[in-house]
Amino acid sequence: MHTPEISNFSLFLCSLLLIIPFAISIIFKLGIIKSTLTSVVRMAVQLLLIGIFLKYLFQFNIPLVNILWLVIMIAVATFNVTSKINLKLKTFLLPIFISFIVATFFVIFYFNIFILDIENVVDARFLIVIGGMLLGNSLRGDIIGIDNFYRMIKRNENRHLYNLSLGATIMEALLPYLKESLVSALQPTMATMATMGIVFLPGMMTGQILGGVSPVLAIKYQIAIMIAIFVSTTIAINLAILLTIRTCFNPYGLLRKETFR
Amino acid sequence: MIKFENVEVKFNDNYLLKDLSFTIENGEKLLIYGQSGIGKTTIFRLLLGFEFPQQGNIYFEKKILDVNTIWDIRKKVAYVSQNLDIGSGNVSRLIQHAFSYKSNAHLTTSKERLKESLSFFRLKESILKEDFERLSGGEKQRIAIITALLLDRNIFLLDEATSSLDIELKEKVITLFIENRQWTVLVISHDKDWLNRPGLKVINLDKNHAYTRNI
Fold it and tell me: Chain A, 146-165: which have a CB under 8 Å from a chain B CB?
């Protein structure tokens, strides 16, 4: 079994399908043709560049470069998350970056060493590909978790003050919010896991099957990666919140106004 | 003992409190009286470390209120805030929640005592199973006062804590707080019912930051 080639001409045929949404856009005056085109072109250019880049990265497979590339990916993910939440960049950039580094590297090393049992744990094919899957899939959860935590405390300011007045320590007062934001962040991944295979076939599994891997092995990979995503999201959110509490709350236990943009 | 010494709080460029000084000894009762927006609640917020004076000092049991003492002060003061958005979920859980903190863990709240409190405040026991957020203002107020009482603290900060109670119950609650000699009680209220009670120190805040004391 091998994967059928997609020629440049076939890709062109594929892009012809876009005529359908474009026609609908014209009929309903959606005005999305230009932005769709920009997005498609961006996607094509970015993937082309990354394709070339990955080709050499895989070819040379230098451990230090692989690790460096994953760190760059994490840095981009950090910017992505911090720009989407309504919190001060300056305060959150570094803690979120550290949290992602710890969460991603811990899970990926565990994955490569114990689950895949590969000899070269920093092999580009695994480090970068699995690292990318972890990051890409935990971003949404991370955003929800960190954002919810600070928003809930701001919204429930009076309750927070009441709890402090009862004699709660800062950690005691914040624990309910930590719990709630963690649950809200993990819920999408839980829902995805619960419906997986029935409602949709996940991309990684589909990709492996198309690539000629047996469905059973593809399923095992999918299960492993979902658990890894779940764990890395949990670690990242917990760590990001714990690392930012000290700077976002004053010594009196009050949320600093400068926390928000 | 609680002591305010030349306390000044500015909001933007306007004085909210200016040169405020007073001392309350243990067991004394103080009524802070005055129009809305005059800064009454700020006095409590200062005491709880929720706001900070630009000038002056606040002393609690002869120690200056600062980042080292505030966590201890919060363990000794029972606060009933005017804003009754203090939690969610069922009433029983909300009351229990206050005792889940390490600083209150030594307190044992017996069912009997809770029942007694409920009946003193003319609440049915079934209220414990209701959702706190769906209670009326008067019911929320009573639950907040009950929680404050169960904490077994000796200093009370009551911010408009009786505003939604009927006259009969209001009288009962005022008497409860005023007649206990152990308790130091600071009250913020518009109510004449407090003002007319003997044995109360009164601070009357007005727009010109002139504080008339009736001691």
Answer: 156, 158-159, 161-165
